[in-house]
Amino acid sequence: MKVAFFGTPQFAVPSLRALPGAGHQVALVVTNPDRPQGRSRALVAPPVKEVALELGFPVHQPETVKGDSRLEHLRDEGVELGVVVAYGQFLPKLVRESPSRGFMVNVHASLLPRWRGAAPIPAAIRAGDKVSGVSVQRIEKELDGGPVLGSRQVALTGTETRGSLEESLSVLGAELLVECLRRIETGEAVFTPQDAAQATHVGKIEVEDARLDLAQSAASLERLVRAVHPEPIAWLDLPSGRLQVLRSHVEGPARHAAGEVEALAKDALLVATGEGALALDLVKPAGKREMTGAAWANGKRLKPGMKLA
Q1: CA 110 to the chain's CA centroid
Q2: In the chain, where are the structural domains located?
Q3: pLDDT by residue (tens digit) across 246-277?
Q4: How far is CA 239 from the centre of its chain?
């Protein structure tokens, strides 16, 4: 089929690369505009744009798709179907129905209807889900609420980070997309409505969402550390400044009050929480390099029973 591909981050790249290999013609790649990044504020292209140019696909980068005449008339360019993978913008009805087949499909990083919304992967890790996966669904007005064409699931081990799970699900999503496009092309596609009563929702993960509250349990804090790594990174708000926590683990019961030093291990700092002790394995103080929790604690001359400083 001749398709238009909508996507922006690295998660969408495997799906874009899979399309020509499966015999589909990518007529247009739609991605978000280049954005300023870093201290220099230099414009940086989205990963999807870089790959599209590498593969020789035409690229379109509207600030907003609403009212974009080209996207409202995709069938005039011979586009049969729209494929969306983590594009990041709402698609109005005129755009959704502009391909000749009259619809678009979306690769979503969850087992719908669980975790509709912008950040399903961190949500699954933070909630301690035992399984995750990907779904391909038809795009409708309700966010991630359209009927599902196919899904694949993976078991979670409890060691995944946001980054590692995104990487594995991006590959799984590309494989599922190719399978679902074959069904559409051959007329075998069956779209199954979602059970809205089972739906859960999650918004975009902000920096404030990554703040560690030591009054919570060590298990929930450890999941949060993994759920926001490598972005936006978990952090503790301490009198001496913000301390990022890059890696941690649960270390049994605690004797001290939440927020106090439980013990110093060889490479980690054990901190008492609302339930159990959390070992800070790898941390990064503001303006400094990464270091073990023990190295940071030794620099602060912390002892068991002391409040984190």
Answers
A1: 10
A2: 2-202, 207-300
A3: 999 999 999 999 999 999 999 999 999 999 99
A4: 31
